[in-house]
Each structure stands twice: as C-alpha cells, then as structure tokens.
Amino acid sequence: MIYLELLFTFFTIGLFTFGGGYAMLPLIQEKVLSHGWMEMEELTNFVAISESTPGPFAINIATYVGAETAGPLGSVCATLGVVLPSFIIILIVARFYIRFKSSKAVSGVMFGLRATVVGLMASALWGMLGTVFFRSIPLAWSFLLHPEFLCSAVIFIAAVIAALKKVNPIIIIVCSAAAGIVCGLVFL
Asked: In whole numbers, what is the pLDDT of the chain averaged over residues?
C-alpha cells in the first residue's frame, strides 16, 4: 500500500538523518528515485519549490513528494513520517540533555555529526548540479556557452554575492525567481 510505503520511507529518512532538511536531501533523492516516484529533474524542481515556500524544508519536500505520489493522503503520510522521528527523538533528548550536556562523549558525537551534515549537503549539491546546470546540454566544453548554463551560473553567482553581502534571503529568492522567469522566456 502506497500510504504505508510513504510513511515508512519518510520515517526512515527522518530517523537516520541528522542536521535538518538539507542533510536529508541525499537520502530523499535516493529513496524517491529508487521507488520511481519522480525523475531527477522533477525532484530538483520540488527542491526549489520546497526551499522557496514557507516552512521547514524537510516537511515541504515530504509533503510535495507525498502529494505528487499519492494525493492529499499521501502528503499527510509522508509529512507525518518525516516529522515523527524528530518529535520522538527531541522528547528523549530534552529529558536527558541537562544530565549529559557537559559530557565529552556527547560533545564528540555532536562534533562528528556536524562534519557529516556538511558532507551530506555537499553530496546533495553535487548530485543536483548536473540537473540544474547541465540539463540537456552536451558534456563538451561548449556547455559553458549554452544559454541554460550561462543563465543558471549568473543567477547562482548573483545569489551567492547577495548572500555574502547579507541581502535579505527573501529578496534573493524573489530576484532569482524573476531572473529565472526572464531567462526561461528568452532562452528556453
């Protein structure tokens, strides 16, 4: 039954991923693609939508995948699945945190998890770069002059510069979306 499969899959993703939604991305990507629920390009679009809409990224992406796969009840199952492990874990952690917060072992675990989260986010980024920058572009050096690549690269660089200059993220998202619309209408 698809509803139980969505619940269990997203419960597993929520249970075995530390560091928030972006750290979940490689596991979400692997599970969604292996189940055949979406293609990589469609998942990449859902990631962009999930990032652009209000709310936590992991909940947004689970809701979108569930809705796309099995309608409204599918979105409830996927969302519940991704949220439930965190809810249970935070109840347990809150209960024991005061007692163990100064433990060297706990500090060591947190240090190791931070490095893992960065690695998982880098893995997800690497996997999506091909879909974003090189979609339907030949893999020779000529892709550097392809309008899709140039538009994506310019938008990416402008967003990074704006973020480094501490521009409000909402402004960056709105401007990036507007630039993407213009590029899409002109070049794609």
From this structure: 83
Percent of the chain having pLDDT more than 70?
89
Does this model's pTM top 0.70? My answer is no
pLDDT tens-digit profile of 39-55?
988 988 888 888 878 88
The structural domain count of the chain equals 2
Same domain, 57 and 149: no
Same domain, 124 and 141: no
Backbone angles phi, psi at 32, to 5 degrees: -65, -45
Which range marks the domain in which residue 104 is found? 2-133
**CB 121 within 8 Å of CB 23:** yes
Place of tokens 């002059």: 145
pLDDT (tens digit, 9 = 90+) per residue, 92-117?
Answer: 878 887 777 788 887 787 778 777 77
**Residues 6 or more apart whose Cβ sits within 8 Å of residue 175:** 158, 162
User: CA-based angle 18:23:27, to the nearest 5?
Assistant: 100
* CA–CA separation, 144 and 137 (whole Å): 10
128 and 102 within one domain: yes
Assess whether 127 and 149 both reside in one domain: no
Asked whether the CA dihedral 88, 91, 93, 96 is positive or negative, the reply is: negative
Q: What are the tokens at 122?
A: 């880098």
Distance CA 150, CA 153 (A): 5
